[in-house]
Specification:
Strand order of the largest sheet: 1-4-8-5
Order of helices and strands: HHEEEHEHHEHHEEE
Shape: globular
Number of helices: 7
Radius of gyration: 18 Å
Helix content: 25-40%
Number of strands: 8
């Protein structure tokens, strides 16, 4: 995968900046951390298309291969006959480096973490753009990404989610006993496939149930 430019504005958002003026030292440290993440990251991804066969409070994919429970995911896929399950990871080296800096330079550790978060989201965006080019999606579009833990979609779906994608075998992505993705800088998501254009269903902080209290939300 080609190197992806990391959006500094997104890094600053994850660091909690609200249009403050950056001093030279901090700005250069962020630039250095962006460069370091690009060198450390080993982005990998896998995705697969599934038929949506259940409704109401439980979404069943491919007649019970996996079930997604909750009102939020049901609403997310309400107009979808198909959906994509996506898994993305940046690999283990970033986790190792962040843990190292947590012991030696906490400021750099925090900035490196924010850079990695921005990077994995940008990788997800890139993969979604690739998915849109699939022949099966002709005259169709994708909803925004909806991850386990959003709304009332439980985190304990992670292992089943990774299992149906064979994510451990294909990209080295697993989940801990507490349903934390390992490596940490990873994303799993459900993406609905809908007829025509779904701009009205675009990803937005306004759609998030944590919008009121989130320090990372985008200004609108």
């Amino acid at each position: 995968m080609d190197t992806i430019d990391i959006d500094k504005k997104e890094v600053l958002r994850y660091l909690g900046y609200k249009n403050q003026i950056l001093d030279y030292k901090t700005d250069k440290l962020i630039e250095n951390c962006i460069f370091e993440i690009q060198k450390l990251a080993e982005p990998k991804y896998i995705y697969s298309l599934f038929k949506v066969t259940g409704r109401e409070n439980t979404i069943s994919l491919d007649n019970g291969l996996i079930e997604l429970k909750g009102n939020a995911i049901s609403n997310h896929l309400r107009n979808s006959e198909d959906c994509v399950l996506l898994a993305v990871t940046l690999g283990n080296f970033i986790d190792t480096k962040i843990r190292y800096y947590e012991k030696t330079d906490m400021t750099r550790a925090l900035i490196l973490d924010a850079c990695a978060t921005a990077y994995v989201e940008q990788v997800c965006d890139m993969v979604c753009n690739l998915i849109k080019k699939e022949d099966i999606l002709k005259n169709k579009s994708l909803t925004y990404r909806f991850s386990p833990g959003y709304g009332d979609l439980p985190l304990d779906i992670q292992k089943s989610f990774l299992g149906v994608l064979a994510a451990e075998k294909n990209i080295g992505l697993t989940a801990s006993s507490n349903n934390i993705l390992l490596p940490r800088k990873s994303v799993t998501a459900v993406i609905g496939v809908v007829e025509g254009n779904c701009k009205h269903n675009a990803k937005s902080c306004l759609n998030c149930n944590k919008n009121r209290d989130c320090m990372y939300k985008k200004e609108v």
